[in-house]
Amino acid sequence: MNQKKLLVPTPHIDALQGDFAPTVLMPGDPLRAKFVAENFLEDVRQVTGVRNMLGFTGTYRGKSLSVMGSGMGMPSISIYAHELFSLYGVESIMRIGSTGGLQDRVQMNDVIIAMGASTCSNVNRHRFMGGDFAAIADYCLLETSVQKARELGIRHHVGNIVSGDLFYDPRGMELFRQYRKMNILGVEMEAAALYGVAAELGKRALCLLTVSDHIFTGESLDSEARQNSFTDMIKLSLETAIAV
Q: Annotated active-site positions, please?
């Protein structure tokens, strides 16, 4: 019992040391993590399942990769990213999630490669001693993902997104119109925190997002499609992971 406790570093992840690959793909939905593991990885094994936040490790084209859910929101991804980076030897985390599109040129099922992540949250101000931290992606991951998207013929956009604390924001369309004016491509709830954790710990992070709904046109995918599709984004993240 005592020996097992020494091998399990956190109350949030019950994997053992060495169970995670250096690169982790991180969707918000743990069932999407399971979908990726079962449909894209080989020699897969589940390595964690605390609170049903499923994590798996396998191989893709011969390279060891892991995939694990993050849950919704910046507090949740901050916990998992911090522990993976600081305790499990993970070097890179790529969030693979969904976003609400804001620009007319951003269409349903397009992939957004988040060069930066603005936020209305104070999460990174706490890390940056009250200042405004520029939450940006690791350049190597960013450049590689753009190259791979072009090679794969995936319709994509590169630019700024925004990570919000509130899904149901009382400011409503007034807020989204301001984001749109500032050329924000999409809105989601995790990337700014992931970029902040990676910077704090000297690690690498990237956020890839599939447009699952559009704020201004009202188009939207159903929950099953969100869980089991997003194939372009998944392939892009896998090809990026094995290239860096």
A: 213
